[in-house]
Amino acid sequence: MKTRTSRTAWLLPLTSLLVLASVSAYIASAEEHEGKKKHGSSSLKLPPAATRTISYTNDVKPIFSDMCFGCHADGQHKGGYRMDTPAQILSIVKKNNSAGSKLIRMTARVGGESDEYMPPKEKLTAEQVGVLRAWVDQGAKFDEKPAK
Ligand code: HEC
Fold it and tell me: What confidence category does residue 120 fall into, taking pLDDT thresholds of 50, 70 and 90?
């Protein structure tokens, strides 16, 4: 009896050490995953910004016209939001900061609440989001008025 205990006694500390090691490894990887999720929501998953110079009239307005104005201009103001003027459009834009702009998060369908993704059903292509990003990053300038 005595010899048996002493022969297996080393197993207990060893097993608990192994369990401890794997538990802390698990926690570390879960924390890393969580961190990635948080950062990813703003930058990792956004399509890249277009690299050319973007014009509101020629590049951005056609996208808004196809994808937004039907519900947010010309008398339509779904959700109380309108896009008839530059000021209204800029209310969801942080100039020079596309990753921080609600317009980009909504249209790229990244982060936040999924019921804020716009348009509700149709989706912008990665290229279209890239054009909007570049426009915001280039200062969100309007080269004509009115906006819509
Ligand atoms: C088919 C109709 C439709 C289209 C197209 C559409 N929206 Fe919306 N939008 C809605 C509806 C409906 C709501 C209200 C949603 C709610 O309150 O849950 C809304 C709400 C909003 C809001 C206010 C809510 C908030 O979270 O700030 C903004 C901003 C917005 N849309 C931006 C856009 C943009 C930008 C586009 C184009 C890229 C767009 N929408 C295209 C229907 C539409």
Answer: very high
